[in-house]
Amino acid sequence: MGTNDWRQRFRAQQIYEAKVADGNPDRGLVVASWDARTIQLFAWDVPSGELAAVTDAKHGVVGGWIDPAGRYIYYLADEDGSEQGHLVRVPFGGGEPEDLTPALAPYTLRGIGFDGSGATIALNPVNRDGFALYTVDLSNGTGEPRELFRDTWETWGALLSARGDLAACWSTARAGGVRRYTLLAFDVGTAEQVGELDDGRTAKVVGVRFSPVTGDGRILASSTASGFARPVIWDPRTGHREDLPVTGVTGDLEPVDWSADGQRVLLCQLAGAQRLHVYDLGTGELIRLDHPPGTFVIPMGGSPAFGPDGGIVGLHEVSQAPAQVVELDGGTGHVRRALLTPGDAPAGRPWRSVTFPSSDGAQIQAWVATPEGDGPFPTILETHGGPHYTENEVYQPGTQFWLDHGYAWISVNYRGSLGFGRDFAEQIWGDLGRWELDDMVAARDFVVEQGIARPDEIFLFGGSYGGYLTLFGLGRRPDLWVGGIAIAADADMAACYEHSSEALRSAIAGWMKGTPSERPEAYKRSSPITYAADVAAPVLVIQLRNDTRVPPQQMETYERTMTGLGKEIEVFWLDGGHQSGGPEVWIPCFEKMGDFAAAVLAAKRARD
């Protein structure tokens, strides 16, 4: 396709998440870009496939929930994309948002859960008062939030049992703030803790959902006690646990849902090319589903779920076409039907999964795509955000932009990524940047050795934590890169800690194994600004003014430092926050990034 047509991929209809109400299969929630402008929430009439917008936020809304009965859609209403605000709900048929916690100070939301009917919700807000778990009774209007738990240690999640008598969250308290969680359960009536699932100081336990069967208070959870994520079912009242005996599976096997009859559990292998499995609790059989290749689970995002008839409904993503919502057969994994398909869009080029050894011999997985023609090519080396995230195959207009313009592309699941086991994910803690950069260098060497990349024309590129790694790599290994493009990047770890939201401050302290005052040298060692004098390549940064995860103050300081050193840097500022986006934002950004990369290559080739 012509390079002038790349914009059509961004403008095409795209689905980012889809959920069907647990107790009403005719109603669902879709997160999508449907108008070629922003990402919003849509009420989804499943039988007809019709979508009706329920939000029209200036900077978009990228996440929400639908209650089990399909009566309301819930989301965090923030200010200017700040990710700090109040949980609101809107009737499925549309209407004005209703604030469910008007008396609370604005907060970041770390989870929301429903009982079986949707008459009670649980939520986990984070603000200057710390981390908390509340329930709100909605059976007769909107009740006052009732506090079940509060702590200064980082806490995630908000689950409710089907009957609404138990609630759960997971806490870093026993690990001193490091993300090795224990799972806590509370009696909603008395607000007393009734149980804690603790697999020791080297493991993390994260809740997935309570049993959907009314009166069954067991929780489906994930534990890394074995070194890899594995499913466990725990009864907080009795303390009984059942570790599901899955064998013959490599990498993390994450539980994602529990069938309505309580008899089957849905599992996903996250690393590389994903694979769904069903575990039958009655027979003890692990069934490997024969579904089409592609991505079904996005870490920290959407995942498929069992339907009322035992089918599996979720988003199916591949690199060559926009995602669609499909129903899989719950026994075989075969596609029964497509439930929601976006309009036509220009096709993308395929990705392929590769592995290669890093500096210490660890095997690193990455995704590679190449443009038309014969290599070697100028190349984009991308690092994903997180750090605890995973790059999976998706239809990504940004990746296809580079391919359209003659660049090869590789995205690295560096140390810190999910899916590859506990040690792989945690190896970066306390020394951010070091192992990730080793894996980035190994990826560079791989594409050069394979004849894919021109060794002197490789750009670093990434957003969020990937933007941080871009700046870090430019300063630590300046000899390897022709340029760097960083989006929403952290350049100074201590300054980011000082100015970020309470939720992110706890996360940073966990990753760094302490605060800046406790470990000043570690923060300095892991900060790109420390190596500003060594940067040799031109840098383009795209940063957001109202970002509470990666605050603007530290990037202003980095820009002044680089400029004072005579370095070639441009910072392009946008309104909104960390997750603000959509076609009307992305298109001008990629125009700018494309012009930057082309100018860098032209100047380099002129010098040669």
Describe it for me?
The structure is a single chain. It is built from ten helices and 36 strands. The protein is α+β, with helices and mostly antiparallel strands and 608 residues long. Among the domains are: 1-99, no CATH class; 352-607, Alpha/Beta hydrolase fold, catalytic domain (Rossmann fold, 3-Layer(aba) Sandwich). An eight-stranded mixed beta sheet has the order 29-30-32-31-33-34-35-36, sandwiched between helices. Helix 6 (493-499) packs antiparallel against helix 7. The longest helix has 25 residues, at 583-607. The chain is globular, with a radius of gyration of 23 Å. The two termini are 30 Å apart. The model has no long low-confidence stretch (mean pLDDT 95).
Summarize the structure.
By secondary structure, the chain is α+β, with helices and mostly antiparallel strands.
The total strand number stands at 36
| Strand line-up across the major sheet | 29-30-32-31-33-34-35-36
Name given to the CATH homologous superfamily of the domain at 352-607: Alpha/Beta hydrolase fold, catalytic domain
* Weakly predicted, low-confidence segments: none
Return the CATH architecture of the domain at 352-607: 3-Layer(aba) Sandwich
N/C terminus separation:
30 Å
Overall mean confidence score, pLDDT: 95
The largest sheet, given as strand count, sense and whether it forms a barrel, is:
8 strands, mixed
Which strand-content bin applies to the residues?
A: 25-35%
What class do helices, strands and sheet pairing give? Answer: alpha+beta
User: So what's the overall shape?
Assistant: globular
What is the number of helices?
10
Specify the helix fraction band: 10-25%
Q: CATH first level of the domain at 352-607: which class?
A: Alpha Beta
> Do you know the CATH topology of the domain at 352-607?
Rossmann fold
